[in-house]
Structures are given as C-alpha cells and as structure tokens.
C-alpha cells in the first residue's frame, strides 16, 4: 500500500545538540546527507555557520551519501583542535 516511509534517527552531540535544543530527531523522507543538511539549515539556521561532520550507522561520511531506512545518523562537532 503506497511507498514505505523512509525513517531514520539523527543524534546530535556537543554544540550541535545545544543549537538544535535536542540531542535526537526522528526524520523521514530524506534520502541523503546533502538533503539532510539543507533541511537542518532551513529548520535550524543557527547551525549554518557551525562545522560538523556526519556519520551514517557509525561510519563517518564525506560528500553526499545515501541514508538507508532505519539508519542512525550522527551530527558530530569538530573534535579538539578543530
């Protein structure tokens, strides 16, 4: 019956979580990390100037990466030394 919802969990750490005012989001219908960034910057403009990296299922990704259904996506602030 129709398409399966594409749901996943976003975990935010450090200053990212502070700016989002939450450490966990449940999102759906976002196919890739670039689309996710666009969504986050639109919903939370205060993180636009914040550097962070993204991991999908505990593997750090660079560039645009697909987000599988039921994935765990983490927004990681820069580690010490930036």
Automatic annotation (TrEMBL):
InterPro entries: Beta-grasp_dom_sf, Mopterin_synth/thiamin_S_b, ThiS/MoaD-like. It comes from the Bacteria. SUPFAM superfamilies: MoaD/ThiS (SSF54285). This is Molybdopterin synthase sulfur carrier subunit. The lineage of its organism: Bacteria, Pseudomonadati, Bacteroidota, Cytophagia, Cytophagales.
């Amino acid at each position: 019956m129709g398409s399966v919802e594409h749901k996943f969990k976003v975990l935010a750490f450090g200053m990212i979580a502070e700016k989002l005012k939450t450490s966990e989001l449940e999102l759906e219908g976002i196919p890739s990390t670039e689309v996710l960034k666009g969504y986050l910057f639109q919903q939370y403009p205060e993180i636009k100037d914040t550097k962070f990296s993204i991991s999908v299922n505990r593997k750090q990704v660079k560039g645009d990466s697909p987000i599988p259904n039921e994935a765990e996506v983490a927004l990681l602030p820069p580690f010490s030394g930036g």
